[in-house]
Amino acid sequence: MPSRKSKSDQRWSMYSGLHDDVSRLLEEDDLHFDFHEHDDTKNCIKDYDTNIMGRFMCRNRGCGSSGWASKKIAITIRMYPGAQYNVRVYHQRCKGCNSLSKPRLDDSYAERVAYRLKKWCGIEMDRPNYSRQSRGPHQQDLCEGCKDGHCNQLLLGQLD
Questions:
Q1: Alpha carbon separation from 2 to 6, 8, 38, 43, 105 (Å, rounded)
Q2: Contacts 24+ apart (CB under 8 A), 95-98
Q3: Shortest CA distance to 45 belongs to which of 89, 88, 22, 77?
Q4: In this predicted model, what pLDDT tens digit does every residue of 4-18 receive, in sequence order?
Q5: Alpha helix locations (H) across 1-150?
Q6: Domains held by the chain: number
Q7: Which UniProt keywords apply (predicted)?
Q8: DSSP assignments along 29-60, one per residue
Q9: Fewer CB in a 10 Å sphere around the end CB: N or C, the chain?
Q10: Domain span at residue 88?
């Protein structure tokens, strides 16, 4: 019987609880999508890698890290038949102890997801002006999106 990964070993998460925020932004253009609960690469009809922003807290009680902010949290947005979507949000590792940490996301999640879904539906929009200033270099060895081949940090500024 295969062993299941513990929650602390999970390298990415989906945030279905943020669907209402995405829906509000989609409704501005009369679009309606449901959240696709199963992360499935075979049935998706479109996918796109980009980055969002948020904050991480190290869950390792033995680590002295107070957490860190990231402007380069890798995500993969997927669209499925029947006006459905989901988003894989990649975790990052703590620089102090190498433990995996799940991010707390800001508004950039809903904004980026809605932007991509609108583009895929043919909605004409101005390109958003996202802040790209970061306090330090992107550390690929701590980014699970990089390890999985879904972090576009090396493609600097890819949005369209």
A1: 13, 17, 20, 25, 32
A2: 95/65, 95/68, 95/139, 95/142, 96/58, 96/63, 96/64, 96/65, 97/58, 97/60, 97/62, 97/63, 97/65, 98/142
A3: 77
A4: 455 557 899 999 999
A5: 19-27, 108-120, 144-147
A6: 1
A7: Metal-binding, Zinc, Zinc-finger
A8: TT---EE--S--SSS-SEEEEEEEEEEE----
A9: N
A10: 12-124+141-148
The SS3 assignment for 83 reads: coil
Q: Cα(first)–Cα(last) distance of the chain, in Å?
A: 43
Q: Is 1 contained in some domain?
A: no
| pLDDT reading at 111 higher than 50 | yes
* Domain membership flag for residue 159: no
Residue 41 lies in a domain: yes
Reported as a single tens digit per residue, the pLDDT across 4-57 is 455 557 899 999 999 999 999 999 999 999 999 999 889 999 999 999 999 999
Distance CA 32, CA 46 (A): 17
State the pTM of this model. Answer: 0.86
Which residue type does 52 have? Answer: I
